[in-house]
Design a protein that fits this description.
about 425 residues, 21 strands, TIM Barrel, nine-stranded mixed sheet, diaminopimelate decarboxylase activity, Lyase, Ornithine Decarboxylase, Chain A, domain 1, binds pyridoxal-5'-phosphate, globular, lyase, lysine biosynthesis
Length: about 425
């Protein structure tokens, strides 16, 4: 759910018309609804009152977003030293930070140890050995979970499916017991959990439950063999509605998991990203041209794949709505909505039936709050978009639009 809705033919974010924001801050622009963000944080907290909920920072890493979530008691699931820096700057406490990723560098491990984060989600034995050495050098102990790969098919897009045997993530179930006993013997490692994350944009409960049963069995086995497993981190992955998907609600997942938790002396950790932030944001873009070729009708907009990569990267669907409904009675038309970038993959929609659009119209690309701005780049030397946070009838710029000077600020001319 979200707080973007039409009132008198005008699309609003909470109590602010999106057309007004576009007129005042320009386009392209990301607009987030604080009310939606807080609502989603509370839905997770209510469904899992005992759990540690760590927002996957890679979904939306703006420090205002992280700060808002931290105030709701949500921690951070980080995958880099950069995300650690952001989370701390946003006010996320170290005891609410977990650190995943297959390629943690030594300096990133050291930074996380110095900050005394809650847990490393370790993805290989080599990484474990490095964490042991860095922890020893810093005269501290690293709390860890091993990320295990339950070999469960998340039935999602192959690029965001991570829990299969062939994926690069985690350690295999076959060696998990042995690896846990190895970790347990290391002097500067404290084993405290099991981690898994099987993929993103999951729209059914079954893969979660299948994975959880496997993790649960491993936990019971480890506990019986004297390893103190206290945390089960089931990762993120709950999907959202982009088109017609009906993903499970956090409460449904909680109910399905509850009976499997009962006899476990463990606290749950969850790492939702998309489910918290996805429907919190829209991407506003302005129609530059309507171009009719022999084959097709194109709507050329001022946003592009560098701003919002999901359609070109995954072929994903985003609902696209005019911020002012066309009341002229013109027929809807089938169009491709494309950006100005020199790639044919630069599109937001193909063969989409849209209300008639004209030069200057503002379109809202819905469900752009997760993996939107965070995946943006400067490709084609396009300054990155402004980010805005709406709060009831007010809004605030939470990241200014990049300037042309920003584009070259780290570059040097030859002497
Ligand atoms: C990406 C990721 C998440 C978040 O996934 P969502 O589908 O956005 O909920 C959580 N944990 C890990 C380890 C991830 O890589």
């Amino acid at each position: 759910m979200h707080y973007f809705a039409y009132r008198n033919d005008e699309l609003y974010c909470e109590d602010v018309p999106l057309a007004r924001i576009a007129a005042e801050v320009g386009t392209p622009a990301y607009v987030y609804s604080r009310r939606t963000l807080v609502h989603h944080a509370r839905v997770f907290r209510q469904a899992f009152p005992e759990a540690l909920i760590c927002f996957a920072v890679k979904a939306n890493s703006n420090i205002s977003i992280l700060h808002t979530l931290a105030q709701e008691g949500i921690g951070a699931d980080i995958v880099s030293g950069g995300e650690l820096f952001r989370a701390r700057r946003a006010g996320v406490e170290p005891e609410n930070i977990v650190f995943a990723g297959v390629g943690k560098r030594e300096d990133e491990i050291a930074a996380a140890l110095k900050q005394d984060i809650f847990m490393f989600n370790v993805e290989s034995i080599e990484e474990l050995n490095l964490i042991q050495r860095v922890a020893q050098e810093l005269n501290t102990t690293a709390r860890i979970a091993l990320r295990v790969n339950p070999d469960v098919d998340a039935k999602t897009h192959p690029y965001i499916s991570t829990g299969l045997r062939e994926n690069k993530f985690g350690i295999s179930m076959d060696s998990a017991l042995m690896d846990y006993h190895y970790a347990h013997r290391l002097s500067h490692i404290q084993v405290q959990g099991i981690h898994c994350h099987i993929g993103s944009q999951l729209t059914t409960i079954e893969p979660f439950i299948d994975a959880f049963k496997i993790i649960r069995a491993l936990a019971l086995e480890l506990i019986a063999s004297g390893i103190d497993i206290r945390y089960l981190d089931m990762g993120g992955g709950l999907g959202i509605t982009y088109e017609r998907e009906k993903p499970p609600l956090p409460m449904e997942l909680a109910h399905a998991m509850a009976p499997l938790m009962e006899d476990l002396p463990c606290t749950l950790i969850l790492e939702p990203g998309r489910a918290i932030a996805g429907n919190t944001g829209v991407f506003l873009t302005q129609v530059l041209y309507t171009k009719q070729t022999e084959e097709k009708r194109f709507i050329v907009v001022d946003g592009a794949m560098n701003d919002l990569a999901r359609p070109s990267l995954y072929g994903s669907f985003h609902d696209i709505r005019p911020v002012q409904l066309n009341t002229s009675g013109e027929e809807p038309v089938k169009v491709d909505i494309v950006g100005p970038i020199c790639e044919s993959s630069d599109f937001f929609a193909r063969e989409r039936l849209m209300p008639a659009c004209h030069h200057g119209d503002i379109l809202a690309i819905m469900s752009a709050g997760a993996y939107g701005f965070t995946m943006s780049s400067n490709y084609n030397s396009r300054p990155r978009a402004v980010e805005v946070l709406v709060d009831d009838d007010q809004y605030r710029i939470i990241r200014r639009r990049e300037t042309l000077e920003d584009l070259i600020q780290h570059e040097e001319l030859p002497q």
